[in-house]
Amino acid sequence: MYKRITLSKSARAIHLIPFHSSEAGARLTLSHVTITPAALHARLTEALRTSAFRAENGETLLVGESHMFVGLGSAKDYTLNRLRAAAAKVGRALVRIGTTSASLAASSAWTATSDEAKCTAQSAGSAFAQGLSLGSWRMDLFDGTATRRPPKLAALALWSDEPATRTGLAHGLIVADGANTARRIAATPPNIAHPMWIATESKRIGREGKMRVKVIDFARAKALGMGGLVAVGQGSAIKPCIVAISWTPKKIAPRARGEHVVIVGKTITYDTGGYSLKVNNGMKGMKYDKCGGAAVMGVMQAIAALRLPMRVTAVLAVAENMVSHDSYRPDDIITMHNGVTVEVTNTDAEGRLVLADALSWACDTLAPTRILDLATLTGGVGVGLGHFCAGYFCEDEQLKGQVEAAASASGERVWQLPLWADHRDFMRSQHADLINSNPLRSAHPIQGAAFLSFFVRENLPWAHLDIAAVAASDAAHEVTGVGPTGWGVRLCVDLLEKMT
Question: Cα–Cα distance between 226 and 224 in angstroms, integer?
Fold first, then answer.
């Protein structure tokens, strides 16, 4: 794996040459390839003749020391997302041979999709760089003296002689860096990544991106009436906080004037379940309950590096859900930031409590024109949709279209779930205004969204993305492998860019 990937030219670069397979999947053409000396051409011809190279998506063939042929599968099925997957495999292949530079050969095959309007040289370059960087990333901060893993290679210089492709490569590397930052934050263990660490990391990202960072500490959260955040985090020795990261560029795009998008991230640094304690090894992996907030941090890093000409603010609801003499309990009734009272029925439904206060505070304080939240909120969304996509809720037609378009372009798929008045009524309490979780498991993934809807200003475009099943992968994902995926960074950056 590489410590960093840079956009720079090298005389020793391995030239990456794309191939599409034919309908039959075997016959390939050399018509767009010029290779010297003749011996290299002969070796490639023999590999094609014997089917040693079939150009399946992501398949690679190293010919000599300076050419690598990259399979892209059938042109009929080729998409930017398939290109990301192919590039991830290319990245891993480059690591295996220890190369330090690679160049995309100028060829129309990189953009040979059925929808040429969506796959340009620039978008293909961006998708390739994203896949390459995401596929060759590895969390190695905690490799010790007994590790068997090889050290990361210092750097990879990536290049293309085609200016539009090169522009895309630069863009894709920035977006992937944001996603990899999210992955690093997600993978950092809870003995290190506690609420104050998240605040410190946010300040670092803010400094590097020239963004303003505000931290609302525990005492101030109490004074502001954030009963959900306070209750969830009060049992931990390290108290909860709200972190706001604000990007306000000097120049605003004409289309984005008057816009202020707020993105809220659930950032539970560790979730024991509280007194509704997780059992049967259910706590394993609960460091990933901060993946929503980690993704939002990655988004802010990326848009600052891209100099996005639109105002955006991230709000992180940060807490550690622990068990102590001071922890909140089932049957407690708490008052939220907007005055809504909540009867706690399940302390393991804590994410919606911290998110609710963050959403309410953002609506009251930041004057957003539209608001999104990302959260590892419910196990039910994974039961319903599997690990194939995130579930999302949105009643605003324009924002819904923007989310779906960004999901399609970024390869981070979503599926809309309903949010009806019946679902909201299902969250009513006998002794308070609401319950945080209905003991009846009916509509489990929808309960969280229904609860949150009481804390968003009426008529404000809002989208809730439940990323519980896609934030981390137990099996090897074709792009990101095993572990945290950084899900949401690519989607949000694409959505925001298309608004400018």
Answer: 6
| Lookup: tokens for 189 | 């263990």
Q: In what order do the strands lie in the sheet with 434-435?
A: 333-335, 341-343, 434-435
Closest CA to 19 of 31, 10, 9, 11: 31
Torsion-angle region of 496 (φ positive above 0: left; ψ -120 to 50: alpha; else: beta): alpha
Q: 409: buried, middle or exposed (CB in 10 Å: 19+, 13-18, 0-12)? A: buried
Distance between CA atoms of residues 112 and 132, nearest Å: 19
User: Do 500 and 406 contact (CB within 8 A), yes or no?
Assistant: no
Q: Which two tokens stand for residue 74?
A: 């059938």
With H, G, I as helix, E, B as strand and everything else as coil, classify residue 14.
strand
Tell me 187's DSSP state. Answer: H
Which residues are known to be catalytic?
Answer: 278, 352
The confidence score (pLDDT) of residue 119 equals: 84
Torsion 466-471-475-481 (CA) sign: positive
Kindly report, residue by residue over 273-329, the tens digit of the pLDDT: 999 999 988 999 999 999 999 999 999 999 999 999 999 999 999 999 999 999 999
471 in Cβ contact with 484 (< 8 Å): yes
Q: Which helix or strand (DSSP H or E) is residue 210 part of?
A: none
Closest by CA position to 335, among listed 347, 325, 343, 346:
343
Q: Tell me the fold of 180-498.
A: Aminopeptidase (3.40.630)
Residues of the chain with CATH 3.40.630.10: 180-498
| Angstrom distance (rounded) from CA 132 to CA 92 | 8
Q: Please give the structure tokens belonging to residue 239.
A: 């108290």
pTM for the predicted model, two decimal places:
0.95
Amino acid occupying residue 490: R
Read off the DSSP letter of residue 237: S
Q: Which residues contact 24 (CB under 8 A, 6 or more apart)?
A: none
Rounded Cα gap, residues 423 and 421, in angstroms = 5
Domain covering 2-161 assigned CATH 3.40.220.10 in the classification: yes
Instruction: Report yes or no: 289 and 270 within 8 Å, Cβ to Cβ.
Output: yes
The CATH 3.40.220.10 portion of the chain extends over 2-161
Q: Per-residue pLDDT tens for 444-495?
A: 999 999 999 999 999 999 999 999 999 999 988 999 999 999 999 999 999 9
User: Which residue shows structure tokens 């530079």?
Assistant: 101
Alpha carbon 420 to chain centroid, angstroms: 28
